[in-house]
């Protein structure tokens, strides 16, 4: 890949610290400390559509829960690096539309992504806020993801302690398939795809206590 020379004053120099964007670092998710920092700064909302994650939106007659995606604002395909200042929180719909496109600003990204969302049949952010009975500025009230049920949280607590589905089933005196289903439903409730992210969010928002072994981990 040919490196692109950046002009003096280009905002991307602040992210990468040099005039050429090159790299070979393997794609990865942001560190736990970076996730907490971004959620604190951005709130539990998509950077692009500004709809809270875990919100149920409509696409025609279907209902879709917005899932958490961690997006490289400067696309990984362009940089092949994972600088911590380049991560943003996005919903899976906007991230799937943005893909590897480069934008000069968040506003420019929104102007490109939001019309495409509507063209694909998703209800607009304006329609979502209207349906929820909120002004755009009031969406902060939905920043916390929905709280899973007590049973789902108990399963997450056991998973956070390192127990597998069979062990969780024994602790809760249910079948292994029911234990697995509790974990899946907890993930769906929190708007994430896997139990690790579900545990992190549940801890971050105080739904479960941080496991002892996680307290001792370095960020």
Overview of this structure, please?
With 219 residues, this protein is mostly helical. The chain has eleven helices and six strands. The protein has a two-stranded antiparallel sheet. Strands 3-4 form a two-stranded antiparallel ribbon. The protein has a two-stranded antiparallel ribbon with strand order 5-6. Helix 4 crosses helix 5. Residues 16-21, 138-142 and 214-219 have low confidence and may be disordered.
The major sheet is characterized as: 2 strands, antiparallel
The total count of helices amounts to 11
Strand order of the largest sheet: 1-2
Strand/helix succession: EHEHEEEHEHHHHHHHH
Distance between the termini: 32 Å
Concise structural overview:
The protein is 44% helix and 10% strand. The chain has 11 helices and 6 strands. The protein is globular and about 60 Å long.
List the helices and strands and how they pair.
Blueprint lengths: L3 E2 L6 H5 L3 E2 L10 H11 L13 E4 L2 E4 L2 E5 L3 H4 L7 E5 H7 L7 H14 L5 H7 L18 H11 L4 H8 L3 H15 L4 H10 L7 H4 L4
Antiparallel strand pairs: 1-2, 3-4, 5-6
Helix pairs in contact: 4-5, 7-8, 7-9, 7-10, 8-9, 9-10
List keywords for this structure.
two-stranded antiparallel ribbon; mainly alpha; 11 helices; 44% helix; single chain; 219 residues
């Amino acid at each position: 890949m040919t490196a692109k020379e950046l002009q003096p004053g280009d905002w991307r120099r602040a992210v990468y610290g040099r005039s050429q964007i090159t790299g070979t670092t393997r794609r990865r998710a942001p560190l736990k400390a970076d996730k907490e920092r971004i959620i604190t700064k951005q709130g539990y909302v998509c950077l692009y559509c500004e709809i809270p994650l875990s919100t149920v939106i409509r696409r025609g007659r279907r209902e879709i829960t917005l899932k958490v995606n961690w997006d490289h604002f400067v696309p990984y395909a362009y940089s092949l690096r994972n600088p911590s200042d380049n991560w943003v929180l996005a919903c899976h719909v906007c991230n799937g539309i943005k893909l590897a496109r480069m934008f000069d600003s968040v506003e420019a990204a929104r102007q490109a992504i939001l019309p495409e969302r509507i063209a694909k049949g998703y209800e607009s952010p304006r329609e979502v806020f209207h349906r929820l009975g909120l002004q755009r500025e009031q969406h902060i009230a939905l920043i916390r993801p929905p709280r899973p049920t007590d049973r789902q949280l108990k399963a997450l607590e056991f998973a956070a302690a390192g127990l597998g589905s069979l062990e969780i089933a024994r602790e809760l005196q249910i079948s292994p398939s029911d234990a697995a289903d509790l974990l899946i439903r907890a993930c769906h409730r929190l708007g994430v795809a896997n139990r690790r992210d579900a545990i992190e969010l549940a801890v971050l928002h105080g739904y479960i206590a941080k496991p002892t072994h996680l307290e001792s981990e370095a960020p």
